[in-house]
Every structure is written in structure tokens, then in C-alpha cells.
Design goal:
Length: about 210
């Protein structure tokens, strides 16, 4: 009786273990399947991360360039106005000369950014951009007035006026907007055999502004 009981007990124990074993095996197979799927997902994610990284690098570079450009244009505040002299009394003629001569507008009324040099009369562009220039020319006496604007020594625009006896105007002017590279130089020349005049009226001026950097 005892022996039979023990055998039955053993069989039932073995049966349970077999079931357990089967169950565990199924678990392991499904876990392995899950791991395989996870590995695939991981590989796909790794590719995604790689792609995002390179996109991010490209965007970071673009942003850096943009920020540098913005910084340059924000930094660049350029504006000047200058008259030939700051005479309080009397007057002075400049010219006529046989050769064209650089006009030095000595009296800097405004010179933000110091791109205009009132010792030499030369404006030097500190950044690439679009600049606006204007010059007003006045001569009240019997010789023609004539001034030209040059960029790096090359003619751009001029303003001329006939001698006062030939008409009733003594004043002339011209303006121009120019795309300048950094270091480009702009200055005004008194034309050959022409004359300008200065007194406390400050009627001859040279003006320049940076409209926007590029
Ligand atoms: C340049 O302009 C400033 C401001 O008007 C003045 O103080 C200075 O003497 C000028 N330089 C020359 C060479 O005239
Ligand atoms: Ca005239």
C-alpha cells in the first residue's frame, strides 16, 4: 500500500516538473523572439539616431553661420556726415587745380563707427553691405563746381554746376547706393579746373550710411 502511494506521488511530481519544464521552454522561446524583435528595433533606432545626429550637425553649422552674420550686421553701425570745414568766420576756396584732387571733408559732424577718416577724406567699408552716399556741392563764384565720387579709384557718379554767371544756381548734388565689400574705399574728388567754397554755412557735405550688412 505504501509503495503504491509513493509511486503515485512520484509520478505526480514528475508530471508537474514536465509541465513546468514545458511551460518554461515556451517562455524562453517567446522571450528569445521578443529579444530578436528588440534587437531589430534597436538597430533601426541606431540608424535613426545616426541620421538625426548628422542632420543636427548640419543645422548647428547653419545656425552658427547665421548667428555670426547677425552679429556682424548688429555690430556694424556706420554713419557719417562731414563738411569741408568748421570755419566760424571768413571763407576758403579749394581749387582750381590742374589735376583732380581728393577732397578732405575735415569737419566730422557725425562719425559713428569711424569708417570715415577726416584726415584723408576716405571712407573704408568695415563690413560687406549696401551703403548710401550723398554729397552736396556749393560754389558761389566764377568757376565751375564739379565733384566726383570714386570707388577704389574708379569713377561712380558726379555732380557739376556751371559758373554762377551762366545760371542762377550755385548748388548741386548726387547720391548713390553701392554694394561694398569689406575694405572697399569711397572718396570724393574735386574735378580738374573746378572749385568749391567753404564758410560757416557748411554748404559742402559728404554723407554715408550703411543701410544693411550682407
Ligand atoms: C575730425 O573731426 C573732428 C570732429 O569734428 C575734429 O575734432 C577733428 O579735428 C577733425 N580732424 C581734422 C583733421 O580736421
Ligand atoms: Ca551754377
Amino acid at each position: 500500500m505504501n509503495t503504491i502511494y509513493i509511486i503515485i506521488l512520484l509520478l505526480s511530481v514528475l508530471n508537474t516538473q514536465a509541465e513546468d519544464f514545458m511551460l518554461h521552454t515556451l517562455d524562453i522561446i517567446s522571450e528569445l523572439k521578443k529579444i530578436a524583435t528588440m534587437e531589430e528595433t534597436l538597430n533601426a533606432l541606431r540608424d535613426d539616431v545616426k541620421e538625426l545626429k548628422s542632420k543636427n550637425e548640419a543645422l548647428t553649422m547653419q545656425l552658427k553661420t547665421f548667428e555670426e552674420k547677425t552679429e556682424v550686421s548688429e555690430r556694424a553701425k556706420i554713419a557719417f556726415s562731414a563738411s569741408l570745414s568748421d570755419l566760424k568766420n571768413g571763407f576758403q576756396f579749394i581749387g582750381p587745380y590742374t589735376q583732380a584732387t581728393t577732397l578732405v571733408y575735415k569737419n566730422a559732424i557725425t562719425n559713428i563707427g569711424h569708417a570715415y577718416n577726416n584726415n584723408t577724406g576716405i571712407f573704408t567699408a568695415p563690413v560687406k553691405g549696401v551703403y548710401f552716399f550723398n554729397f552736396v556741392v556749393f560754389n558761389p563764384h566764377d568757376i565751375s563746381a564739379g565733384v566726383r565720387l570714386l570707388k577704389n579709384g574708379n569713377f561712380v557718379v558726379a555732380a557739376t554746376d556751371n559758373p554762377p554767371k551762366q545760371d542762377t544756381e550755385d548748388t548741386t548734388c548726387n547720391s548713390v547706393s553701392l554694394i561694398l565689400e569689406q575694405g572697399d574705399q569711397i572718396y570724393l574728388q574735386l574735378m580738374e579746373k573746378c572749385r568749391v567754397y567753404t564758410d560757416k554755412g557748411r554748404r559742402n557735405t559728404f554723407n554715408g550710411h550703411l543701410l544693411f550688412a550682407m
